[in-house]
């Protein structure tokens, strides 16, 4: 089998993984080595595929052979599909040559489980060793830690990679038991905890000894599949929250379930991937990471799922009229961040500009505040925007209209939800 | 008094315009570089470029605030219509008001400059990813057609990333090229540039990349609109994955110079 065929098979098998970022590691150039890790905070997208997802890394599996039989996965052993294995040389050559041509920022290496987790991880380590040491690759590497791998191997993997990730796969133990019989919650969280502890120890050592080899400098991330099981948004978001709190994850990725297998336990094959739901979860994830929200503020037992019509931040704002309006010229950063239509950047500009003089409504638009959304929730010098109508139902309608064009799916059910909110 | 200033089209030349406008107590209402043809009823002045004058203006901006200096330098690289006039208005207001002007982000002399610079920075950020190189006997070559003059800002990124490589990056819009070999770089004017036909190995890597690009898409999530908003079409014609078949065959001629879609 030639490299073209292998690349096709092993890309096709890896494409459902959501993570594709290159941020978080800052490693300068080294004489004699290929590349660096981009110093830009925002990461570097090299292209966007036809589905609009960013392509940063060469995202492939080392092999799609797998001894597991997870029902939702294209690579399950019971699936009749073509199998391939990259040799370390092939993989290293592809990565280096793609990198030199500025196609990619680095390698994302995942793998099916060949023989056993330890055996697979050892092969992955051999690939990365050849790439890092043999071919002197200094760019970004994201490696998957496979649940059930022994701690020494995970540590070795982390010394070669910039970021490690362990996939949670399904948001609940029940889902795992039904759909991924070879994986348990414990087996997934063990390496995650191990990575967290090794990271902490490594950071301490780095303070003492500057030349200590760095363990996964870009931290760890995870992903879970949305819509293959019955879990609520509330469950998923609180899980996310606890992952950030307890395991210090850098990112949690969500992947809308794309039906790849016929099984009575799974949504049927003609189900559309729940893209809007995934979108809402990402919006909420941003609120957790950058806007100071907590999961329990956004969803509770009476409302366990996100409203499809308004984004989570608007939803929160509409449920908390007592918090608004916020006075732009005196409010704290935390308060401003809770105003719909204001983001981290525009809040930064407001804080910077208002030290020179008091701002009014006409300034805000120029500072990048989305007034279509924000106008209902703020005052300038104590005044609301002139001529603004503050009726609950018209606010809701306008907020919905402001967001609709940018949503992944057109919603047909709007009328029923108007009734609910009014 | 109002006047039209003619200068050599360089940043230093522009700084000398600023210098001279204070010497002669004039307010330049238009700036003309050597390519400019039209005559006008207004009195005009030819400004000679004097390195020491330019340095004094630049230093004075840096003294007000390093950020002011950065805005002036970057502002001159943008593609904003009448960027010289925008920058002149900005610099003049800066001398009048001083450092506090920089906090007035919505000020009429500041906002247009900020907007133009944001557009420039955005294009630089995208192009860090969208530049494509091809290998010709060990040398890498790439081509872009940006709106802004991005090469000076892309330079540190690519010189770091490709520290050990010999490469050339051609900006077809502004007809200049960034050339680099280990430890040395230069941005030089280059009237024409034509990429050679790919070797067999180069063509194979292009095909592999194209295959990867086509395979990584999840068809059930197809969303051309989203792709277009993240990656505007004007970048596509210099990106390998959007070329037609000829580009993937060894030894065939490349697109004719400047051919767009």
Please sum up the structure shown.
The complex is a heterodimer of chains A (422) and B (261). Chain A has 422 residues and is α/β, with parallel strands linked by helices.
Structural class of chain B: alpha/beta
Number of strands of chain B: 8
CATH class of the largest domain in chain A reads Alpha Beta
Q: Tell me the major beta sheet of chain A.
A: 6 strands, parallel
**Mean of residue pLDDT values of chain A:** 90
Describe the overall structure:
The complex is a heterodimer of chains A (422) and B (261). Chain A is an alpha/beta fold and 422 residues long. Chain A folds into two domains: 3-263 and 271-298, Alpha-Beta Barrel (TIM Barrel); 312-421, no CATH class. Chain A is built from 16 helices and ten strands. In chain A, strands 3-4-5-6-7-8 form a six-stranded parallel beta sheet. In chain A, strands 1-2 form a two-stranded antiparallel sheet. The longest helix of chain A is centred in the middle third of the chain and has 24 residues, at 185-208. Chain B has a five-stranded mixed beta sheet with strand order 4-5-6-7-8, with helices on one face. With 261 residues, chain B is an alpha/beta fold. In chain B, 41% of the residues lie in helices and 16% in strands. In chain B, a hairpin with a 2-residue loop joins strand 4 and strand 5 (139-144). The N and C termini of chain B lie far apart (47 Å). Mean pLDDT of chain B is 92; it is low at 256-261. In chain B, helix 3 packs across helix 5. Chain B has two domains: 2-120, no CATH class; 131-248, no CATH class. Classes of the chains: A alpha/beta (422), B alpha/beta (261).
